[in-house]
Amino acid sequence: TAERDALMQKSAELLKARNAVLVAHYYVDGDLQDLALATGGCVSDSLEMARFGRDHEAQTLVVAGVRFMGESAKILSPEKTVLMPDLEATCSLDLGCPIDEFSAFCDAHPDRKVVVYANTSAAVKARADWMVTSSCALAIVNHLKDKGEKILWAPDRHLGKYIQQQTGADMLMWQGACIVHDEFKGLELDLLRKQYPGARILVHPESPTSVVQQADVVGSTSQLLKAVIDGAEGETFIVATDNGIMHRMRQLAPGKTLIEAPTAGNSATCKSCAHCPWMAMNALQGVVDCLAKGTGEVFVDAEIGRKAAGCITRMLNFVK
Ligand code: 13P
Ligand code: SF4
């Protein structure tokens, strides 16, 4: 529409005028993803978003995603201005792991290395030894296991269980979940697979075990996207992750057939069940507002940020 085009144009102008760069996650609105790519920003998974924001020369980062992504950007670059289109965009994993309870959990198990998922608050990261994302959790837990470490894992129980099964590591787990991925259903997926016998199943590891068990590829959003790009021409994929990723998958793999994995209500009644309500809060108008008015600035307490930087940097150094 004309309104959308005007907002795209205005956002691009403001990004340029402010010497700012847009760092977007695959789950946000397709217009924001297109804007990020058209203006020299990035669209990626949470690991790459953190690295891109840290390494980019722009002094202002606009992070289109959820709160923990903005916080990670600020923690890694405290001297930069980090803005978000909507500061209220959070994550059920972050909400489900409040620092006081988490701290008490850690205190009760001082013999364990504390490994937290990126989807946590700055305060939780400040209490951790390692941060991981879904793209590197396996490698990092394997590394810790090889060193004989016992692990305290938080907050995603499905990702934790998958990593535990793959590595055999001794992991004590927080019982959090992603409200989006938790909705994928193993039984319905099994039925859908029978309709598409040749389809490859791509699953984000925040999904329940019954879904992960049926996967041909388990991985982060970037890793699932890569699996589609690398697939054979005309191949069919059933995708169990937030359907925001379909935008980029269709762009990069136009010849492939992409089917959303089933959630409890999706078929006829709810086509877009698998979409994060917090990611959906990101909009072009929010980009314009934060750049024009300075709204949505992310602040992290300096002491918490300094401590949290330790576990994020440890991860970035490990994966490089
Ligand atoms: P990725 O790191 O795989 O992009 O996942 C982030 C996220 O929030 C998934 O729900
Ligand atoms: Fe959090 Fe799930 Fe939304 Fe990702 S999709 S931001 S894990 S609630």
UniProtKB/TrEMBL annotation:
<dbReference type="GO" id="GO:0005829">
    <property type="term" value="C:cytosol"/>
</dbReference>
<dbReference type="GO" id="GO:0008987">
    <property type="term" value="F:quinolinate synthetase A activity"/>
</dbReference>
<keyword id="KW-0662">Pyridine nucleotide biosynthesis</keyword>
<keyword id="KW-0411">Iron-sulfur</keyword>
<keyword id="KW-0963">Cytoplasm</keyword>
<dbReference type="GO" id="GO:0034628">
    <property type="term" value="P:'de novo' NAD+ biosynthetic process from L-aspartate"/>
</dbReference>
<keyword id="KW-0808">Transferase</keyword>
<protein>
    <recommendedName>
        <fullName>Quinolinate synthase</fullName>
        <ecNumber>2.5.1.72</ecNumber>
    </recommendedName>
</protein>
<dbReference type="GO" id="GO:0046872">
    <property type="term" value="F:metal ion binding"/>
</dbReference>
<comment type="function">
    <text>Catalyzes the condensation of iminoaspartate with dihydroxyacetone phosphate to form quinolinate.</text>
</comment>
<dbReference type="GO" id="GO:0051539">
    <property type="term" value="F:4 iron, 4 sulfur cluster binding"/>
</dbReference>
<keyword id="KW-0004">4Fe-4S</keyword>
<comment type="pathway">
    <text>Cofactor biosynthesis; NAD(+) biosynthesis; quinolinate from iminoaspartate: step 1/1.</text>
</comment>
<keyword id="KW-0408">Iron</keyword>
<keyword id="KW-0479">Metal-binding</keyword>
